[in-house]
Amino acid sequence: MQETIFHPESLKSRLVVRPKVTPAKTSVIELLELLETHKDSIILNLQELRSHYCRTGIKQVVGTRDPQGNLIQPHLKTQPIYQTQYVPMGTFNFSRHSATVNLQIAQSVHLLNPENNLPISEIAGILPQHLKTYQSYTLIRDGELNIKSLRLKFSNYKVFQKIQSTGVLHNVSQSSDDFNFHLEYELQLQDLPLVSDKISITDLGKTFSKIADLQILLGIISATLKGQSAVYLTEQIAELQEHYLSPNLYFNLPKTSEFLNLETALEEHQVASRNRYQIELGNLEILSLGKLYSANTFLKRFYEQVVSSTGEIIEKPSCDRLLQPDVIFRHKELSSRLKITSVDTLMQPFFDSFLGLAHPGKVVVLLHSVGAIDLAKILQAKWQGEAIVLEQFVEALTSAKAQIHHQIEQLYQEKIAPLILYVGATGFLPDSQVATAQTAEQLATEFPDLNLTQRDRTGLFFNLGDCLIGIYPKTTYYSL
After folding, report:
1. Per-residue pLDDT tens over the stretch 374-386
2. By CB count within 10 A, which of 19, 26, 195, 459 is most buried?
3. What confidence tier does 16 reach under pLDDT thresholds 50, 70, 90?
4. pTM confidence score
5. How many beta carbons lie within 10 A of that of residue 459, not counting itself?
6. What's the CA gap between 94 and 5, in Å, rounded?
7. Which top-level group of life is the source organism from (predicted)?
8. Within a 13 Å sphere around the CA of 79, how many CA atoms are in the beta-carbon half?
């Protein structure tokens, strides 16, 4: 990819071959989609995977560090419920910004009482009987295969046949490739193309605009819900957090880098660095979604909060005060030094609608598009001056947050991830997309109103008309 995109002149004197895109074979991505579709009938030999896995980042250790750098272990620990080398087939997560695919493995665990090492039976009135830990293994790293094979067992004959029909499934014992639910089969990936040559990318501009709108609204809702739960009391949430549990009952022990000092680790050859590339979608108004402000940051730029009973202006406004009935929002007088950007122009209508400073129609339409009808009705009722029940508002916000997050993820997986994987694996745009690579300087010359940051100036861009594909070099580190 580096040679193809950043040094295209090197291709003029030779035939360009796309070794990671082959029409005759099932691609790795198609195979992974098949595995995930039928994951309930497949188990994975995790012990064998770990034996040949190559780490792609700096190793993390469980715990936190005190001011002196000493590692402090959590006061709780876990124990796998099933002491076996096999785990249920995981899910495959596609990176939003690089040609990377991670295999996420879930394991059911007990949370142990440190005093007697027995499973904790109750937390905040909740039975912790479905706790899981999650581990991620990078299968494809920046367009390169990182895991060459997977050892699997099958419980369903029809699923076995579907996977076997790809021609890359073989009996480990080599006695026969016929189905036997007792035996392991090796799924060999190293000779397959990473992506299909039949990729079709359409409506990229519309997709980016929809994701940007959803991301803005998701940010507002998430900031409004800070510290809130539609199910649990504040005291319950605090007790859950003491046991490293979120209100959604996700278990997450604190982790930190195994190295105190990165420079020292590099000098002692414990860590190495490599170049990678981030691939981001944008347009001529917003080069990437990373340009969007956080909800509270944007709130402070353009709005102020006032205690209605006293007229006191709150010094540090935050979105979560929207749930306080005695707090009102209003536009603040802007400083002459404040430069209004295209990001501001995009974000402000959503804030005005959500905060009740403008008709909520813009937000309501977006909420309806993801099925968040309850929140849409509440915002309309608030605009009409009707009283709102706080518990119902929190429930509607919580539900809408999940629905918006799901819609964003679906758009990325269906519309954006295939393009990012293709570009990252081949260094080319799909045949359906025609564009010439431009440096940041060339792009700025053509479009002088662009506000380029220092990072932007390191990138290369493909202008597809209604959207831009930006490719940015980045240094990353990994444990040796």
Report:
1. 999 999 999 998 9
2. 195
3. very low
4. 0.85
5. 24
6. 22
7. Bacteria
8. 11
